[in-house]
Prior knowledge:
Elements: E1 4-8, H1 12-16, H2 32-42, E2 47-52, H3 57-68, E3 73-78, H4 100-105, E4 115-119, E5 122-123, H5 126-138, E6 144-151, E7 162-169, E8 175-186, E9 192-196, E10 199-202, E11 208-216, H6 220-235, H7 245-254, E12 259-265, E13 270-271, H8 278-290
Parallel strand pairs: 1-2, 1-4, 2-3, 6-12
Antiparallel strand pairs: 4-11, 5-13, 6-11, 7-8, 7-11, 8-9, 9-10
Helix pairs in contact: 2-5
Amino acid sequence: MQPTLLILAAGMASRYGSMKQIQGFGPNGETIMDYSIYDAIRSGFKKLVFIIRKDFAQDFKNIFEPKLKGRIEVDYVYQDLHSFVGGYKVPADRTKPWGTAHAVLCAKEAVQEPFAVINADDFYGKDSFQKASDFLNKECRDDLYSIIGYELAKTLSENGSVSRGVCEVDKDNNLISIAERVKIYRDANNKITYEEGDKKYEVPDDSKVSMNFWCFAPSVFPFIEKIFGEFLSKNGHNPKAEFFIPIIGDRFITEGKGKIKVIPTDAKWFGVTYKEDAPDVQASLNKLIKSGEYPETLWI
């Protein structure tokens, strides 16, 4: 059973206003997502599931279906506030989706095989997809999931601070915990620093961080559903509360359900945290194209 790639794109519409305005970075207007899909196909993924908002479905299909036809099986899942809430009454003032873990749960009926999850607007690099594909094909089990771990130094922005999930790993490279660190940046002494309250802490350049590239077996769906029910009863009244994938990873470990392997990659992540990052993303892609990593035109 060959793996599936789940792309979290439900939040994109709110950022761009319309799918028609989706930002192109490649020489022919390719989006960051195009490069992820290209890497997934050449790494052996056979199915692609987009998690999107229903009201943007047609725009989305118009962009991606013509170029992906015949290359990979494509399916669509809609993240809806009322999906998987059971008998819970969604508060009237709740407008934003429930978060990334809920988005994954919405794909429960569409995915029956080992799968990877990525963000739509992050560039992960070929090495990451190949390692994820190898793990999903050879190692993934109900008691063994994984996360692709990036070197912190390769995920910073020169245009401001970033937030990253810094991974604590054991001697066997299994995840112990993920700590969300906000305001991470290089200080005047070239040291990577994060702020918490009024204090500053140094973090090693080679610390492994999560960029939301996870690998799961389908057994994760009932587990997410159970924890989502608990999340709603505790936090559902808070209009800003979000149900994130790291919550699932943390509970999977602490409840003794299994292990999460941190698979290191030397790939350089990039994305648009700030609008000023866009030229850097374009330059990084051009460099990869010139080096032969990607063709000038992805979809011929």
